[in-house]
Write a structure and sequence with these properties.
- This protein is mainly α and 340 residues long.
- The chain has one domain.
- The chain is 70% helix and 1% strand.
- The protein is built from 13 helices and two strands; from the N terminus they run H-H-H-E-H-H-H-H-H-H-H-H-H-H-E.
- It has a two-stranded antiparallel sheet with strand order 1-2.
- It is globular.
């Protein structure tokens, strides 16, 4: 994994935390420019995640003799344990302390569908969401993994086109024929393809540049995000997200060797899964004590960061290694490098 991408992934995770802080405590009503950025623009962290996913999956499979079965099992070992753990924790909290999740209701069928990454209307009545609300993005991730696994059956040079066609069929033709959920009919799914394209360009050595160019790219991307436009999300936030990813990749020489940035990136998945639970607990405390949300915010940040650190090492990393051995997934054979 590129350290620069790890840093950007960590940044995206914490931007989402800020976005959900504004939603949890202020219902996304901003009272100053900083609050506005997180309340109105913080959701772009998800778009950055999707672009990074496409990049990482492409680079992780580009020169390896990897079967679809091996790929899916490795993705399951990496993604599922932590997601299931925090989903079950959410279920227990809803059952024992329902006032912490006043808008949520626990239903067995919905909980099971959530664990299986199947789209279902939330019992609370506010849309298609799993029990662990932030897990809606993982429904897209798992769909992308399945389609990319199919693309592994064709030569590497054709994978981008195969995944593009499969995404279009699954997300647009499928819902029209009632074969897949309307939930997937969102243009942000094509942000995964942006990441794949970035990976292809990176492997061609096209991201070597002086520092001023990627820094300019970051400034332009942030300006585009702040300004916004009345266009589809894949253009409004997807294109700036892709520009951010490309710019950070160009800055890789300045990130190499940074253990701290790598650690932040490693913990970002647990930050994403854990933070909503912490924020809801903070809201419960604020509701019972009347203290300012901004006084509870540092506590939420510390609890999320420390919890994510231990979650990565004790839950994610440990279960990933055990499941890989249990699944019998060996390290794939590295092939000679191919041009794309």
């Amino acid at each position: 994994m590129l350290i620069s991408v790890q840093a950007l992934r960590a940044l995206a995770a914490w931007v989402v935390v800020g976005h959900h802080f504004m939603g949890t405590f202020f219902d996304y009503e901003a009272h100053n420019p900083l609050e506005f950025v997180f309340a109105d623009k913080g959701g772009i962290g998800v778009d950055v995640f999707f672009v990074i996913s496409g990049l990482v999956i492409f680079l992780a499979t580009a020169d390896k003799s990897l079967t679809p079965r091996q790929f899916i099992l490795m993705r399951v070992a990496r993604i599922v344990p932590a997601y299931w753990f925090y989903t079950l924790v959410t279920a227990v909290v809803i059952a024992l302390v329902p006032s912490m999740f006043p808008d949520d209701h626990l239903e067995l069928g919905h909980a099971l569908m959530s664990l299986l990454f199947l789209c279902a209307e939330h019992p609370g009545g506010y849309g298609v969401y799993p029990l662990l609300n932030v897990g809606w993005t993982l429904n897209f991730e798992m769909l992308f993994y399945v389609l990319f696994a199919i693309a592994l059956l064709v030569p590497p040079s054709y994978r981008l086109w195969v995944v593009a066609v499969l995404l279009f069929l699954a997300c647009y033709i499928g819902p029209a024929l009632d074969l897949t959920s309307d939930f997937y009919r969102q243009d942000m799914v094509f942000e995964f393809l942006m990441g794949v394209v970035i990976g292809m360009l990176y492997r061609r050595g096209l991201f070597r540049a002086r520092a001023w160019l990627p820094l300019l790219g970051i400034v332009l991307a942030c300006a585009a995000i702040y300004q916004g436009a009345d266009v589809p999300r894949v253009l409004e936030w997807g294109m700036p997200s892709a520009m951010l990813v490309m710019s950070f990749v160009m800055l890789e020489p300045y990130f190499q060797g940074s253990r701290f940035m790598k650690m932040l990136g490693d913990c970002s998945y647990s930050v994403y899964l854990l933070h909503d639970l912490v924020l809801c607990a903070g809201r419960w405390v604020v509701g019972h004590t009347g203290i300012s949300p901004y006084l509870i915010l540092p506590v939420c940040i510390v609890l999320t960061a420390s919890g994510a650190f231990y979650s990565y090492h004790w839950l994610e990393k440990a279960t990933y290694l055990r499941l890989k051995r249990w699944f019998g997934v060996e390290a794939p054979v590295v092939l000679s490098r191919q041009k794309y």
